[in-house]
Fold this sequence. Notes:
The chain has about 270 residues and is of the alpha/beta class.
Amino acid sequence: MQKTALIIKRSGKTIGLVPTMGGLHExxxxxxxxxxxxxxxxxxxxxxxxxxxxxxxxxxxxxxxFQRDEKLLDERGCDIIFYPSDDEIYPYGFSTYVNVENxxxxxxxxxxxxxxxxxxxxxxxxxxITRCDIACFGQKDGxxxxxxxxxxxxxxxxxxxxxxxxxxxxxxxAMSSRNNYLSPEERKRxxxxxxxxxxxxxxxxxxxCDTTEIIGEMRSFIELVEGAEIEYIEAVxxxxxxxxxxxxxxxxxxxxxxxxxxxxxxxxxxxxx
Length: 273
Ligand code: PAF
């Protein structure tokens, strides 16, 4: 991949990258659409990154169906699929990690202490291997997008980071590879994440700007849903992830909720009218 990328770059062409862990759905494919016209060669990577999963998380269970993913990427006009093995990315004796501080402390970082270090390490490697000029990440993982933007800025990585909007099912549920873990009954309950975000949007539209009030309403709503266990509901600055007391400029309401054994996340960015 790195040799191919160097040849492409020497011919004066630009490279766009969509990093994925496979299990592709419309959300991933929309990331290709978001940067297709901003680069000459479109690369997608598929790598279930072991170091971003903690003990007891779903690394082993994560969907792996390369043929299905390959077909979807081909149909969507992806030029190159980079599909490395674990050993290629983490050779014997691997000892170098990239860590973004502060932004990774809260939200998902609290319950998944090694997660973002794993993400930033693999994304740095994917940037260096593919030599991409531009890369696209989904707003569904809003904290991840902010962390990667900060990493690229702090380390002077010459890659433009684009964030693409959350893609939702017709009932509002955010698309995620992990939705496949849900039973039909859990799938119905899982809609409570989006409905809680709708409550936040509605309250802000009605003039409420105290985030404690808004989070309180979101929490009360989810607590009524059987089998739903709240991990966090927070209001933060979408760029630096610091907690916000008031919605006085763009504010991200983000939540993680367990439906049965499946941990789901979602978010929305609101602003005062
Ligand atoms: O968002 C994901 O699927 C992963 O965290 C990423 C960015 C591909 C890194 O493994």
